[in-house]
Amino acid sequence: MKRIGVTGHRNIPAEAYTHIRTAIQSVLHGQKGSLEALSSLAAGADQLFAVLALDRGARLTVVIPSGDYEDGFDDPAELAGFRRLRDRAAAEVRMAFPHSTDEAYYAAGTYIADHCDRLLAVWDGLPARGLGGTGDIVRYARERGKPVTVIWCEGVERA
């Protein structure tokens, strides 16, 4: 079984959304055989990837950074999306952090990078805005020789 993990921005600019969605679909549908998708189901790239992976027939493994992770969802629709996807997951891994901190996010991101065969990064190429951000996880994966596929829409900046 091929394992693909995701790291990515929570805010995907509207002008980049279709391009990013299509690129993720292309990667997922280009895989032969069974597929496992690893995601923390954060708003934005994580949830989009999980939806597309499930649509492709992948087995979803959710990596939860902390015990209070759900409290970090400000938008009720994003929290509902998290819960719907978590309910469809075949497996759940919980990091041993009681509270959502940068360290918890970093631990979840590195877990995904360590347990996938390829990492998809919905990433604008800029440094992380805090420990555990997309740039940090991409750097971590690359330092360990993990194949990383960066998906972004050239010329678009995230908010």
What does this structure look like?
The chain has 5 helices and 6 strands. With 159 residues, the chain is of the alpha/beta class. It has one domain: Rossmann fold. It has a 6-stranded parallel β-sheet, sandwiched between helices. α1 packs parallel to α2. The longest helix is centred in the first third of the chain and has 16 residues. The chain is globular and about 35 Å long. The chain starts with a strand and ends in an 8-residue tail after the last strand. The model has no long low-confidence stretch (mean pLDDT 95).
Short note summarizing the structure:
The chain has 159 residues and is an alpha/beta fold.
Quick tags:
globular, alpha/beta, 5 helices, 6-stranded parallel sheet, Rossmann fold, 6 strands, 159 residues
What order do the helices and strands come in, and which of them pair?
Layout: E1 2-8, H1 14-29, E2 35-39, H2 45-55, E3 59-64, H3 76-88, E4 91-94, H4 102-114, E5 118-122, H5 134-143, E6 148-151
Parallel strand pairs: 1-2, 1-5, 2-3, 3-4, 5-6
Helix pairs in contact: 1-2, 4-5
Low-pLDDT runs: none
Q: How is the main sheet built?
A: 6 strands, parallel
Strand order of the largest sheet: 4-3-2-1-5-6
Overall morphology: globular
* SS class: alpha/beta
CATH classification, class level: Alpha Beta
Oligomerization: single chain
What is the helix tally? Answer: 5
Number of strands: 6
Order of helices and strands: EHEHEHEHEHE
CATH fold-level name: Rossmann fold
What average pLDDT do the residues reach? 95
Q: What is the correct CATH architecture?
A: 3-Layer(aba) Sandwich
Helix content: 25-40%
Percentage beta strand: 15-25%
Distance between the termini: 36 Å
Rg of Cα set: 14 Å
- What count of domains describes the coordinates? 1
